[in-house]
Amino acid sequence: MSPTELKTIPFNRTHISENELNYLTEAVRQGSTSGDGPFTHRAARLLREMTGSNHALLTTSCTHALEMSAILLDLRPGDEVIMPSFTFMSAANAYALRGAVPVFVDCRPDTLNVDERLIEAAITDRTRAIVVVHYAGVGCAMEIIGELTERHGLALVEDNAHGLGGFYQGRPLGSFGCMSTQSFHETKNVQCGEGGALLLNDAGLVARAEIIREKGTDRSRFFRGQVDKYRWIDIGSSYLPSDVLAAQLTSQLESFEKIQFRRHTAWHGYHKELADWATKNGVSQPMIPDGCAHPAHLYYLLLPDLENRQAFISHLSSRGVQATFHYQPLHTAPAGVRYGRVASGGCPVTEDVADRLVRLPLFADLDEADMTHVIDAVQTYRVS
Ligand SMILES: *Cc1c(COP(=O)(O)O)cnc(C)c1O
User: How far apart are CA 121 and CA 24, in angstroms?
Assistant: First the structure.
């Protein structure tokens, strides 16, 4: 085949949900497109139902929800926040912006989640919080981490960007921490381009969170008729998304089951069809511990080494399949070195898996022919 005939499977393609275009039109026509309009309330209600959280505040991104969590924790310069090195930089950034020090802990080699056995040794008298990330939507060891945070009087924050719709021992991911954050970036399971949410599981945080989200004012109370004018109360910023984005998100959330069904079909298709090839080639597939129900956020493979990982990505690319690596360690990143600290013992597992991991295309509209194409491309690679 000539390159122009070659079928290309992108790493991600956004799904247009059933009512999305209608809701967008409706949002634009409703005469007001700023934040906290009717669609924002609808999306927040759907999020509360999905996560069991009593309070969901839509935000402009997961990054911004993390920034709100850092303000809510009243972090002081020099306070420490424990988090995995194997994650997106937004978690570290949010706390570093408050002058706090991210303390990077290694991940488990099986789930790639923070290694719960290493957390306690990283706790000092400056530690204020632990941030967990459920990698690929597979729950961290929440009973152990929950017990640790309680015993040491620390706040627990879940960066649940991958985990919406996932469960740990029957309980929704995002419902364990005093706060958790969601992302609706276009690469996530449900999306509105750029968007996020802060879920508050501790009712005591709600009033202040509303103020922080509204430029430090009590404007939310004003709109509910609880005060007769709104004033500057606290520090904060503008973390409200437009109701147009909330309209897109509402439609996506309403289509959640359909989206999830298709993503699970693709995830399980890869998992089953690639098992023999993986075993023969010394490639590891994802490990899902008992008690974890994941939302098929991503499908990854661990190649034996960096050389094979790079060659594998090139091999797939030459067959029209866009596969990609993932997180690079935060503890060795320039800003990680400058603003953070690595827990003693370092993060050897993080450094190792960051070099070996590949993510395959996974999106709701990946059809059977696409899947066959990806699987064939993978199976023609021989690890050397
Ligand atoms: C995507 C992602 C974020 C950032 O989300 P935005 O909504 O783009 O700010 C944060 N943390 C994790 C783990 C993510 O995957």
Answer: 50
Q: Where are the domains of the chain?
A: 3-10+256-379, 20-254
Q: How far is the CA of 248 from the centre of ligand 1 (A)?
A: 18
* Tokens representing residue 44 in the block: 């927040």
Q: Determine whether the shortest distance from the Cβ of 86 to ligand 1 is under 6 A.
A: no
What digits encode the pLDDT tens for the residues 232-290?
Answer: 999 999 999 999 999 999 999 999 999 999 999 999 999 999 999 999 999 999 999 99
Identify the three-state secondary structure at position 253: helix
- Residue with token string 């499908």: 299
Rg (CA), the chain: 21
pLDDT bracket for residue 126 (50, 70, 90)? very high
| Statement: the pTM of the whole predicted model exceeds 0.90 | yes
State the DSSP string of 337-384.
Answer: HHH-EEPTT--HHHHHHHHHEEEE---TT--HHHHHHHHHHHHT----
- Atom 15, ligand 1: which residue's CA is nearest? 161
Nearest CA to 331 out of 91, 103, 70, 120 is that of 103
* Dist CA 349 CA 86 (whole Å): 9
The CATH architecture of the domain made up of 3-10+256-379 is Alpha-Beta Complex (3.90)
* Domains 3-10+256-379 and 20-254 agree in fold: no
Give me the CATH code for the 20-254 domain, please: 3.40.640.10
State the distance from the centre of ligand 1 to the C-alpha of 309, rounded, in angstroms: 24
HSE, side-chain direction, 13 A CA sphere, residue 200 = 21
Q: Could you say which DSSP state residue 327 is in?
A: P
